[in-house]
Amino acid sequence: MSNSLPLLAFHSYQTLRLSRTPILAPLLIVVTSGSKQIRLGKQRLIAPAGSWLVLPGQQRVEMINQPDRHSGHYHAWALGQLDGWRARLHELFAPQLANVALPRSAEAFEPTEKAREAFASLLALLPSAERGSLQAAQAEHAWQGLVLALAAAGQGGALFSQSHRHTGERALRLLRSDLSRDWQAGEIAMQLAMSSATLRRKLAAEGLSFSRLRQDARMDQALSLISCSPQPLGEIAAACGYQSPSRFAAAFQRQFGCAPSTLRQMSTAGEKSREAGAPA
User: Domain map of the chain by residue range?
Assistant: First the structure.
């Protein structure tokens, strides 16, 4: 997720399978129509409409989005976090969270009513939550309420467990600051006040590599922009660091097993049908 807000809405009007989908940071997925299936190694999670998924960060998963058989529509919210949210949560509530046994792996579950209410409050605040504004502070407070509601129910621990991948997170933050730039490992290392060799060694200790981190950051942004914005594919290619749309399309196909043009068609077909007066 690379939007300025940590919330995206995903639609599909056909069954969509995406292989090697990068999950860069802990993610909450709220399925409202259709169903989502996640495959992570041997683990398989299914979330029908009304259920939630929590995925830990820094991994790749296979996603299958299945539209509702009556409406023909799949819809889900994907909620991430803004920089600093998790750290401030632990500054405020570390003792309370430390006393709760929570799963830190991927999980699918039925949320409690309190969690649903907290998510609805956050959903209402995020559209006006400009960075640094009072509304942004209110949104962060609402997110804390959502997390605490999940913790009280013994759910969603991967959303707020403390990360051991500090170098990876810092490098990722720099990469995502301008993904149109052709970042090299030496540039990131310099900004992190270390040598290229040290950067690669620290990333390797966290189970990461610079090339994969850069590729996943680019593909994460591409997936978000194609699915959730009307931006032309050529502009998206440039925004993701590809000067050639054909190279971008080939990289996207290799990553997801789906052409960017196909994903755009699946995401907009229902809207076009509605505009024409046909049922979606």
Answer: 7-160, 167-271
Q: What is the pTM of this model?
A: 0.91
Domain 167-271 has CATH 1.10.10.60: yes
Long-range interactions of 256-262: CB distance < 8 A, separation 24+: 256/18, 256/19, 256/20, 256/21, 256/219, 256/223, 257/17, 257/18, 257/19, 257/20, 258/16, 258/17, 258/18, 260/222, 260/226, 260/233, 260/236, 261/233
Return per-residue pLDDT of the chain as tens, 280 residues.
444 568 999 999 999 999 999 999 999 999 999 999 999 988 999 999 999 999 999 999 999 999 999 999 999 999 998 888 999 999 999 999 888 888 889 999 999 999 999 999 999 998 888 777 888 899 999 999 999 999 999 999 999 888 788 999 999 999 999 999 999 999 999 999 999 999 999 999 999 999 999 999 999 999 999 999 999 999 999 999 999 999 999 999 999 999 999 999 988 754 544 443 333 3
In this structure, which topology does domain 7-160 adopt according to CATH? Answer: Jelly Rolls (2.60.120)
